[in-house]
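Protein record

Derive tokens from sequence
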Amino acid sequence: MDNSKIRAIVVTVSDSRHEDDDVSGVTLLGLLLAIGAEVHEKIIVSDDFDELRQTLYVLSEREDINLIITTGGTGFAPRDNTPEATRAVIEKEAPGLAEAMRAETSKINPKAILSRSVCGIRNGTLIVNLPGSPKGVQECFDVIKPVLPHAVNLLSGNTKH
């Protein structure tokens, strides 16, 4: 197994989305494939905190995955629990990713500063929260895309400069 290759899972967080209308998840899947990532799964999970936390935990236990990207559940709505579920499972936060996404995308859409996205690391896996809209997914992914291969490489233990 190539430890430096991005091996991802896309997690759409929503109480109302289904496979036939998961535009954000499909957008994210396409963006990952376009950079050469292996996408092992695309799943939809409810906004329920416990279910999402458990899902992120189980996925980050998998040895064939080094990147989990969520879409949805990062706003101010009462059921938006993605950041809290992510914080509950990560061992280390990676605040620069979330800060860069908010800073860059707010130049396009001032409402981007309302995103509560969290990014962090658990068990050698990078977990990244993206917004729930296809446009937000595209804009945020464009910000982090240049560093994702390096981040995964570092997580695999390749720290030589």
